[in-house]
Specification:
By secondary structure, this protein is of the alpha/beta class. The protein folds into three domains: 91 residues, no CATH class; 236 residues, Endonuclease, Chain A, CATH 3.30.870; 165 residues, Endonuclease, Chain A (2-Layer Sandwich). Helices cover 47% and strands 19% of the residues. The strands form four sheets. An eight-stranded mixed beta sheet has the order 11-18-17-16-12-13-14-19, with helices on both faces. A seven-stranded mixed beta sheet has the order 3-10-8-7-4-5-6, with helices on both faces. Strands 1-2 form a two-stranded antiparallel sheet.
């Protein structure tokens, strides 16, 4: 059984079954709550006591206070339903056996990466301030600092795709792809034609895509078709018609590794909106980076680790590591983060950049759903004389997320942070650049999902010509954006203020 949506893409029956079963579960919980509260005072009292106990547990857990507040409000309003949802999805908790499985996978790949202590010492001697950021990332992620690596900044998607196709054509041994969204369409067909030809020639071609991110973007038989073309493929964390704890943790990474010599990452998924072949939310602006040389090793380790985690089949990384080096253009740290560790380097490196900035920090993010700590750092940087500018979309992809994003404008504007909205459409880039010295390009939004729930990745770039390219691109973005002034913002309608305040309360769930 198949149903078509308005784009002609067949929606698998399992989506409908999953949705129906989820609605049945919710209806049942609401029904129980109604019957108990109306007909039985003791049951209602019991639900309140259970809610208070759960709230006490939440308060005493380690974690983000903003995230706790959202859960507390939710549980006190709807005790039985809220408690049930919290037990399933609360706080990014993951079963211990899943954490152990990831640890085992990581131990097979990351310890084998090339580590050169002289590179770290050279950065410390050359730039002590920014070497602290490198030390932090190396310590928290296990990914080394590299030299002898080059980077190339690409934006928008229309520039990214031709370069990607060019690099894919050069592949001689293997091509590995990992994406949150893999959608059939114009972009995919161009990539697929090369992958099919390379696989037929004997190259090792593998694909990981997130099942939730891609589930409505592929026709029936998509995976079987790829396998028939000798392309190995797996869906990360497949969606099943039940509510499970790990279902909330998705693979938001975008990684391409070619022969151990070239890697690509950034915000760009495989979908026609990313190259503006399909118009959604106005003009879609996104960014990516191509990395060549020694730093590619870390992206290879990330992919191999996720492949083993998803399939249970290890990859012989030693046979795939390449010793190729590129023109020595500064320093690079490819890094990753996810819900299965006890640290948070994705958010931490953004904080480190804000802490060490001397002149400016420019930020591009599609969502600005931040906790009090991140907001305080942005405010302190601005009040310390640092030119802090943030670009968000003017045309949102989700209106409720946009309201939560805009809630943060008032305090930031009052502190001197400059906020711009990209008026041509939706900016999906995830960029930081600071002081003509440091930049990050990756998949990490400034929101709870990226910081807490999702698997993410990025590239930290230091003293590299790409940093200046990103800075110059921000100049273009600012010129195409509307600056939000405090005077204008304080005159916004009361209805907007109410929506922003309401959605802010539940922002950690978005």
């Amino acid at each position: 059984m198949k149903i078509k949506n308005n784009r002609g893409i067949r929606i698998p029956t399992r989506i409908i079954i999953s949705a129906l079963l989820l609605l049945i579960q919710i209806a049942f919980l609401f029904g129980v709550l109604y019957e108990f509260t109306v007909q039985s005072a003791w049951a209602y009292s019991f639900s309140l006591i259970l809610g208070v106990v759960t709230v006490a547990v939440i308060i005493n857990r380690r974690g983000n206070p903003d995230h706790k507040i959202a859960w507390i409000v939710f549980i006190l309003i709807l005790p039985i339903f809220g408690i049930t949802v919290f037990l399933l999805w609360g706080g990014g908790r993951v079963p211990p056996y899943i954490r152990r499985r990831m640890k085992i996978c990581e131990s097979h790949y990351f310890p084998l990466l090339e580590r050169d202590g002289e590179v770290i010492n050279r950065l410390r001697y050359y730039d002590m301030i920014h070497s602290r950021q490198a030390d932090y990332l190396v310590s928290e992620t296990g990914c080394p600092l590299y030299d002898k690596s080059s980077t190339e900044y690409l934006s928008p998607g229309e520039k990214f795709l031709p370069r990607l196709l060019e690099e894919l054509e050069k592949a001689e041994k293997y091509i590995y792809l990992e994406f949150f969204i893999l959608a059939e369409g114009v972009m995919w067909e161009q990539i697929y034609s090369i992958l099919k030809r390379k696989a037929a020639a004997g190259l090792d071609v593998r694909i990981i895509f997130d099942d939730f991110g891609s589930i409505k973007r592929q026709r029936k038989g998509f995976i079987n078709k790829l396998k028939s073309e000798k392309i190995a493929v797996t869906a990360f964390n497949p969606i099943y018609p039940v509510m499970g704890i790990f279902m909330n943790n998705r693979n938001h990474r975008k990684i391409i590794v070619i022969d151990g010599k070239t890697a690509l990452t950034g915000g760009i998924n495989i979908g026609d909106e990313y190259i503006n072949a399909e118009k959604r939310f106005g003009y879609w602006l996104d960014s990516a980076v191509i990395i060549k040389g020694r730093a590619v090793q870390s992206f290879l380790a990330m992919f191999c680790c996720m492949w083993e985690f998803s399939t249970g089949k290890p990859v012989n990384i030693k046979a795939r590591l390449a010793s190729a080096s590129a023109d020595d253009d500064g320093f690079v740290i490819p890094y990753c983060d996810g819900p299965l560790n006890s640290v948070n380097p994705a958010e931490g490196i953004y904080m480190q950049i804000l802490n060490t900035a001397q002149k400016y920090v420019y930020i591009a993010t599609p969502y600005l759903i931040i906790d009090n700590t991140m907001k305080s750092l942005l405010i302190m940087a601005a009040k310390s004389g640092v030119d802090v500018r943030i670009v968000t979309p003017h045309i949102p992809d989700k209106s409720y997320v946009h309201h939560a994003t805009r809630y943060n404008y008032s305090e930031l504007l009052q502190a001197g942070v400059r906020i711009f909205e990209y008026t041509p459409g939706f900016i999906h880039s995830k960029l930081f650049v600071s002081d003509d010295k440091i930049a990050t390009v990756g998949t990490i939004n400034m929101d709870y999902r990226s910081f807490v729930f999702h698997f993410e990745c990025g590239a930290w770039i230091c003293d590299n010509s790409t940093v200046l390219d990103i800075r110059d691109h921000f100049t273009e973005i600012f010129s195409e954006s509307e600056e939000i002034t405090l005077t204008h913002w304080e005159k916004r309608p009361l209805g907007q203020r109410f929506k922003q305040a309401l959605f802010h309360i539940f922002a950690p769930f978005m």
